[in-house]
Probable dual-specificity RNA methyltransferase RlmN
Amino acid sequence: MTESTPARPEGMSAVRTTTPKQVRPTTEGWTQAKDAEGRPLLQFASPKRGKPPVHLADLTHDQRVEKLKELGMPGFRAGQLEKHYFQHYTSDPAHMTDLPAGNRDELVTGLMPNLMTEVRRLETDGGDTIKFLWRLHDGALVESVLMRYTGRITLCVSSQAGCGMNCPFCATGQAGLTRNMSAAEIVDQVVRANRLIADGGLGDPRKVGHKDERVTNIVFMGMGEPLANYARVMTAVRTMVDKKHGLGMSARGITISTVGLVPAIRKLSNEEIPVTFALSLHAPDDLLRDELIPVNSRWKVDEALDAAREYFEKTGRRVSIEYALIKDMNDHAWRADLLADKLNARGRGWVHVNPIPLNPTPGSIWTSSDVDVQNEFVRRLNEAGIPTTLRDTRGKEIDGACGQLVATEEDQVAAASV
């Protein structure tokens, strides 16, 4: 005997009664560090290690002048050193013929000590994407990724060696936080990239169309949580945007990303430097985000979104929401609707969503959404009035995409031989 199916009222669409599959976040191939209560361990403080040598880029212009006077040199030499480093992208005394020959080497070595040694570089996208592996003075390893696009050149910089945020999907955080990078180590990634560009090392310069090209955009999306190294990151940013004594970049071309350190977001809102702010959200509900982004145990989704909205109100700069689409984990249609509701509840025109496609990884829970699911997620957000653009990710083939930067055992071996 079979039970008849009740007739559906006219005009009513079919209702899906099956529960969407829900994959829970978990680590694969490594064990997540936990605290005494069994929660994912968060590292906000940098482990104590030997500090990198003080560099010109760690100092303000006035501090550079004072430092030179302490060395028995006239203060105007600071401007000459700044020009060589920030405009000519060199720390080589042989190229600084405007400095007195007698103590040129000592002066340059004292104010521009070598901070990073290139271990290797990997290229993809026909030479338009380059990943650098750098060894710092104490042996710590960091990576940065240089990318040419039509009309701009973007550098993804690291702000910490390792990361203490312990997100289960991110390769960088697997080994925890090694240490904070200095302001000069952050800036030096840009200077070294500019040197490579000036030497013709990045793809086809005709895509930009002028000979004096350089890095135009910075994204703090490499190794580390930028806002956990707040003071040094902001010193580096001030040097990047200083048109007289620094790199002279546009603040609008600099993006600072965070997983949601709310007090630091509010602090950033008051800096009066109009950088682009990006919140790595990845889930609109606390139940999932607590597992996906462990810092959510400190500051919940609504708190992070409120701080992001405050950034827009104080700076007038539209906020970016970063959202890695992970198959059956956070790509459900109802989550797109919930995200739209939460963003629209805080007003219109203040935010833009960037869904990020993950690498397709067969057999892993950390794999890309199906294309139709991905498109539906984007469609729902746009239909709700939230500007949404699927982000172009570069460097997947060389482990240079978002969440892939990590110092491997192979990297350690290579660094030891340099």
In short: The chain has eleven helices and eleven strands. Residues 115-416 form a domain with the TIM Barrel fold (CATH 3.20.20.70). The radius of gyration is 24 Å.
